[in-house]
Amino acid sequence: MRTVAIRAKHARRRWADQALAAVSLALGAALSACHTPKGSEWLPYGREIEALNRHLEEQFRAGNLLGVADVYADDAMLLDERGTRVAGRQEIDEYWSGIEDPVDWKLEIRSIYGSDSLAYELGRSHLTTRRDGVLQTSVVDFLVLWRREPSREWRIVLDAYWPREEP
User: Fold this and answer.
1) Among 144, 124, 146, which Cα is nearest to 45's?
2) Domain carrying residue 118
3) If you compute the radius of gyration of the chain from its CA atoms, what whole number of angstroms results?
4) What are phi and psi of 13, to 5 degrees?
5) How many domains does the chain have?
6) CATH number for 46
7) Residue 83, pLDDT score
8) Which contacts qualify for 65-72: CB closer than 8 Å, 24 or more apart?
9) What is the C-alpha to C-alpha distance for residues 130 and 35, in angstroms, rounded to an integer?
10) How many CA atoms lie within 13 A of 58 on its CB side?
11) 146 class by beta-carbon count within 10 Å (0-12 exposed, 13-18 middle, 19+ buried)
12) pLDDT tens digits for 14-27?
């Protein structure tokens, strides 16, 4: 029985790795010509996504973790460094509301590629929580796929992160 569970776990991890690789390749090919300049030179959609990053940080600092989750689409998927997959509104809400004692979150945007309807962002996250009175900061690199909804609001449809690579 344990062997079956281990095989299933490895199959899920392989699936998550393959899904992330496929999405990354497809996005890179489809959007490579659509690079958004940094900072004040960003196109309007880049500035909108930057503003949403600041909104996410503010919601986290305020302890409004469902406010963070609300920026995700109902059909969103989150993949962590272990290949664990969180998908759909309920699981996304549970993931974010499960964080205990949020303190600070800083999202560094490295680049944004895309168009006015679909974009992806590459960056680095510094997320700080307090555990047993001690501050703990997780630093990871991330890829976020944003989709503009019919309401014209941007929503996260894929959030993948992995340990930061040392320079």
Assistant:
1) 146
2) 2-163
3) 16
4) -65, -45
5) 1
6) 3.10.450.50
7) 92
8) 65/96, 65/97, 65/99, 65/102, 66/93, 66/96, 66/97, 68/96, 69/93, 69/95, 69/96, 69/97, 71/155, 71/156, 72/155, 72/156, 72/157, 72/159
9) 37
10) 7
11) buried
12) 555 555 444 444 44
Kindly write down the DSSP assignment for every residue of the chain, as one continuous string. -HHHHHHHHHHHHHHHHHHHHHHHHHHHHHHTT-EEPSGGG--HHHHHHHHHHHHHHHHHHTT-HHHHHTTEEEEEEEE-TT--EEEHHHHHHHHHHT--SEEEEEEEEEEEEE-SSEEEEEEEEEEEEEETTEEEEEEEEEEEEEEE-TTS-EEEEEEEEEEPPP-
Query: Which amino acid is present at 145?
Result: L
* One-letter amino acid of 90: Q
Q: What is the pTM of this model?
A: 0.77
Phi, psi for 127 (deg, rounded to 5) = -110, 120
Average of per-residue pLDDT values in the chain: 84
Q: What is the C-alpha to C-alpha distance for residues 73 and 69, in angstroms, rounded to an integer? A: 9
Residue 36: the pLDDT is 46
Determine the pLDDT at residue 140: 97
* Nearest CA-CA partner of 160 in 29, 8, 17: 17
Confidence class of residue 164 from pLDDT cuts 50, 70 and 90? confident
